Structures are given as C-alpha cells and as structure tokens.
Amino acid sequence: MHSQTGVEIPGITANPRVVDVVQPLIDRVQDLIREKNVSYDEWHQAIHFMMDLANSGEMPLLMDVFFEATVDAVASAASASSTTAIEGPYYVPGAPMLEPPCVMPQRPDEPGEPLVFSGTVKTPDGKPIVGALLDVWHSDATVPGTYSNIHPGQPAFNLRGRLQTDEQGRFELRTIRPAPYRIPDQGPTGRLLNALGRHSWRPAHVHVKLTADGYQPLTTQLYFQGDGFLDSDVASAVKDDLILALEPAGSNGGSHLTLRYDFQLAPTNH
Ligand code: MBD
Ligand code: FE
Question: On the CB side of 51, how many CA atoms lie within 13 Å of its CA?
C-alpha cells in the first residue's frame, strides 16, 4: 500500500533518519487524502497555500505556531534545567548589551506599565552562576503587541536586550509590561487559523534565552497570571510553572510591577 523504502539503487544515498521520519509523514498524508476524499480543487488550493506561505515569509511563524511546542516537549524531557518553552520566530541575535542598572532599550514615550524583571540563575543544586548571559525580548504594550525588527513602527532592537548575572547569580532588568500578541490575520497563517475556527492570540509573554560557559543553554518564556489567553495560546506553549504573579511595588515615589523568576541551568555533559 505504501511507497517502497529502503530499496538499494546505485547512485541513491538514503538518509536513514529521513526514511524513518519523512517517509511515514508522506504515508500519513496519502492516507488522509484517501480517508477524507480530498478533491483536485482542494489539492490545488493546498499547493497555492504552500506557495503563499513561502512567499509571505511566514514559514517560520506557521512552523512555530503548529509544531515547535512538540519539539520543545521532546527536547525538555531530556534536560535537568528549569522549565523550557519555545523560542518562536522573533528572536534576533545581537541585542544591545546592558550594564547595571539594566534598562531595556525603549522609546522615550514607550507605552506600558513599568515592570522590573529580576531573579537568579543557579545550578540545580543551588550554586549561583556568575556571568550567565540573559538575552531578553518581548513585544511592546500596544494591543496586540508588536516586536521590533519584525513589525514596522519601532526602532531597531527596541525592547530587546542582553544582561549578565552578578557575583551572586542575580539579575535585574527594568522594562515595560508586554501585551498579548496576535498572529497577523492578513497572512496565510492567520487565514489558516481562521479557517480552522481558531483564534490567533498568544498570552503576553517575556522571552528569555540563557547561556553560561559550562552549562546547557536554556530557552523559555514567562507568562502573567490572569491573562485571558493562558488556556488557549495559539502556539500551545504555556506551562503552568511559567505563569507568574505580577506584584505591584513602589520605591522612591515611583511605582512598578515586579516579575521574579529563578532559573536553573544544568551543566553540559562532557
Ligand atoms: C510570537 O511572539 C511567539 O512567541 C510565537 C511562539 C509565535 C508567534 C509570535
Ligand atoms: Fe513572542
């Protein structure tokens, strides 16, 4: 019933992993075409959709929305670090290096509630990791949120920054509270979500990529208690222990929200 695999033909070099993973994928699509009686018209629509997707630049977005959480689940099962989450399509390397007191690059009139994000980076047995590098990025506070370097309207690297832990493994970053994010609805990803009867929102989140010499890198996201999209994230990337309380705090006449999180990095195995 299924295509032949593993036949040795001169000049053809099978990749065993492709045979193992991609061949069953093809087989399952063939099964579905039969099972659902997919018509020629639908077949041509599918081809047009793939062409649109490639031309729109949304391929990484669609892949992350539908599949990255599953890749993360497989990867995190093998890790002793603290809870991971997907990277998503909007990480940009080379964000400004910040020095204490660390303030996220932002416009003079940046909208949004002031937020102080602080915590520690430690080993699983509680030793501080000095000089760990946190690469932090998040949307602005307009609803839906937008990302610098991706959506027009913000200066390059707005709300993107890198900072290091101090001698006690601590970090602190002053920024603003991001808004929930909505997948653009004019593009192929948004149109597909609509046709699936699914909304296109992600809960508000702060992305973090953590690296330190001798430790496994960690990619995660932090979410805020009370967000209306925690239970229906379009990217299925929310994990309970990444949902944090935003506590009000005040100092020197100013007031802000605080977000606290303690990360753990497992050592690299050599
Ligand atoms: C995002 O900001 C995001 O984090 C993911 C996973 C998908 C689309 C936009
Ligand atoms: Fe995001």
Answer: 6
Q: Which ligand places an atom closest to the C-alpha of 58?
A: 1
Give the H/E segment covering residue 52: helix 40-56
pLDDT tens digits for range 165-193: 999 999 999 999 999 999 998 999 999 99
Tell me what pLDDT residue 233 has: 98
Q: State how far the Cα of 84 lies from the Cα of 73, in Å rounded to an integer.
A: 9
Strand partners, 208: 136, 220
Ligand 1: residue whose CA is nearest its atom 6 = 88
Query: Exposure pattern of 99-129 as b/e (b: 16+ CB <10 Å)?
Result: eeebebbbeeebebeebbbebbbbbeeeeeb
How many whole angstroms separate alpha carbon 206 and alpha carbon 190?
22
pTM: 0.93
